[in-house]
Amino acid sequence: MSATFEQVFVHPSQFPDQVYQDYLVSFSGKKINHKFHYDSVKQSQKWLKIHQEYSPSQNDRNCVDTYKKCFQKTAETLDKFSSLQLIGLGSGGGTKDSLLLSYLSNKRRELTYYPLDVSLSLAIISAQKARSSFPELSVQPIVCDLLHSDNLMLQIQKRSEQERRIITFFGMIPNFHPQEIFPILNNFLVEGDLLLLSANLAPGSDYVQGIEKIMAQYNNNLTKDWLTTVLEDVGVNRENGSIKFRIKDDEEKPDLKRVNADFELNNDVTFKLDNQLIEWKSGDKIGLFFSYRYTTAKLQEILSSYGINMLNYWESANQEEGVYLCQKSI
């Protein structure tokens, strides 16, 4: 059975009743939870196409090199440890985690990989990608909503005090409000754990102009098609409105900005989710998506405020992506 079945653990945050409540809140509150853009196989595949087309880590050789430099430094830092856990938060397609595994894996080391994603499809894709390259690797995919997973690390037990954890968070920071996600990352980390994360950056010396420069990575047909899928599934068609992309200030840190995508209605729309009537009016803005853009200095300031030290960092030559090696302050 083990040869033909994929064993997946599902955290209570992604149990059907909880997911459906989050779904209702998204539509009644006119702010779509990002996890519902990855919910189906169709949506996951659309996202992977966008990632392959527009992500610097997929298309810029120099950007890939920044990850390799980070992974080499990580491997050197952990060289003396014979037991490691790699926990990939928001593992996506698993490409970066698998690359990191190639630096960490050796015959004298016990290594366990936990690809974790809100999407069942992506969690399995990550697990299978890692297993295809490292057949002897212990792999355990997990489906989980990070915003409701305070007890997650209690479920992933360390085998000994000498074992070290590496937590990856690649491509995820932009899609969370900083006041939501950084406390969670801080709670996940204990002394000795390493945190590897990446951030989409605003290139150049002018922060706003840098964000304007990369808007085409969001304002394109592939992204629009992906983002409207969640609306079409409830009967809201593209003819009912249009997606508008804007730069918006963070509500708590106005000097930090994000790209916002809203679906602006040009007519009234009414539909039912079970027994709940959803009524949207012409002119309403439905929050579909957002993506924060950082600079290394801004990210370092925020991490420090949560007790996380940035040990080293690497930026791509075009300054559109940064990779960071971090550790919780002792």
TrEMBL record:
List each copy of the Histidine-specific methyltransferase SAM-dependent domain by range: 29-328
- InterPro entries with a match to the protein in the record: EgtD_Methyltrsf_superfamily (IPR051128), MeTrfase_dom (IPR019257), MeTrfase_EgtD-like (IPR017804), SAM-dependent_MTases_sf (IPR029063)
Pfam families registered for this protein in UniProt = Methyltransf_33
Tell me the superkingdom of the source. Bacteria
The processes (GO biological process) annotated in the record are: methylation
Statement: the UniProt record of this protein carries the keyword Methyltransferase = yes
Q: Name one GO molecular function term.
A: methyltransferase activity
What keywords appear on the UniProt entry? Methyltransferase, Transferase
Q: What is this protein called?
A: Histidine-specific methyltransferase SAM-dependent domain-containing protein
